[in-house]
Amino acid sequence: MSKAPQGCCTVSGLVKTYRAGGTEVRANDGIDLDVRRGEVFGLLGPNGAGKSTLVRQLTGLLRPDSGSIDLLGHDVVRHPERAARLLGYLGQESTALDELTVALAAETTGRLRGLTRAAARAETADVIAELGLGALAHRPLAKLSGGQRRLACFAAVLIGERPLLVLDEPTTGMDPVARRAVWSAVDRRRAERGTTVLLVTHNVIEAETVLDRVAVIDAGRVIACDTPGGLKALVDGHVRLDLVWRTDAPLTVPAVAALAERAERTGRRWTLRTTPDEARELVAAVTTGPAFAALDDFTLATPTLEDAYLRLGGRTGGLAR
Amino acid sequence: MTLLDTPAVSTAPAPLAPAARLLPALAAVYRAQLARAKVSRIPLLFVATFQSVGILVMMRGVVDPGDNPSAHAVVAGSAVLVVAFVALNLLAQYFGKLRATGGLDHYATLPVPPASVVLGTAAAYASFTVPGVFVTAGIGSWMFELPVARTWILLAVIPLSGAALAGLGAALGLLAPRQELATLAGQLGMSAALLLGVLPASRLPEPVQWLRDLLPSSYGVDAFALTFAPHPDWGRVLLDLGVCGAVGLVSLTLATWAYRRAAR
Is there a contact between B174 and B99 (Cβ–Cβ < 8 Å)? Predict the structure, then answer.
């Protein structure tokens, strides 16, 4: 039998409009997506791009104005209540769980996902051990740091198995140990059970390392959808040069004066996307004489997803590195 | 690839995980809410009790002790005020906060019946009031020289007036368009329960008596106050408790509807 990838989540023509301060905002403006079973699929875009609005429709929290959403063969627009029985959702807020201990938050969530008390307890113990939350199990979420609280909420999402996990910026505020715990837990479920993960992020480094495919969202539309490598191929043959000046840039140096108009300037940092040849010449020019004296730091790097995103027409400064 | 290559299984909808059933989910919400009390509610429960005891002390200066309607009203009103403080005021604030901060999304993305969330939370808030109501009733009976033998009636008064007030509190919190309005509505409701519950009904002007009749806590106060008489009129006690129960049913249904509306 052929191993055609099975669809997990198919979205087409999704439109959602908000009314904010008397004006209509098209948060989602005709979104099409096709997430395959068993992949880690990312939604990458700056704040306000429409990622969370999209996710809230997938999870049945919001009803789209038009368009269709198919989750594992179920029409979620017509039956939004089915979403809760198909997916586990990690939202950005934890107020419903804040005053519970980590263990009780996870156990209660499991019971509300239909588990018996014994099953919820057993799964809670396993997940707490898996994520290294043992020392915090009996502390209320409200008394934990932001990253620890996020990890506790992630634990609650894992209790009561679901074929799809929708994680809205799961690793915000987490230290590297907690991040690793999250991605190992995701990998384990994917390997053992074929779990699909839909991840919302604006962190390009995370997107490059953990995603199989990524949809780049800007102003309510999908502007590209490919593997991180495929997206970076859009900017192949370019490198990024970052220059950081000690104080003001030495505009008396002709090479620097010529750059002033082309570089993207953020305070004392100048960023330039160019060919490797030109980058070499520029590095040579700024690492000698008065320009070098004024230079605090420089980096020459291969393109990232952020560069691909900018090439695609995304807005500057929206993504985190 | 041709259509024949596509495995037939790919179009079959995935099985839905079981939804949580009403009573187990209600029990889970109730247990979690009781546990919350340990973290955040205990100071507020003290405040609720101190407020009622303070009113008893204040009213002792103007109301004679012994078997008279005013003393009955003061003690019963102060005791039921604890229920109004917690079940109406604090619950309105809790649901208002949950709604404003997106906390309802947590429940809305779980396969849990709305009634489990509303009833479990309301039941927990009503349970928080038990110690405070008994302490207030005990201190009040001692200060106003009233019998304590029929204090057991509180075991019916607390759940029934608790249901009515918690349902009202939850509905206010869930329907208020802004969190501050939920807080305001909860506090106004509690003030009404204070002013209209503690003063003897017979001393109030007629329009104020109508207002008192509209407030669900009044029936709980009356049921408890009637039991201080040497020979209580049990028929009226049952009638008052029946009104509380009926209002409770209506207000909890309203709260469940409000929850559905807020969570979608």
Answer: yes
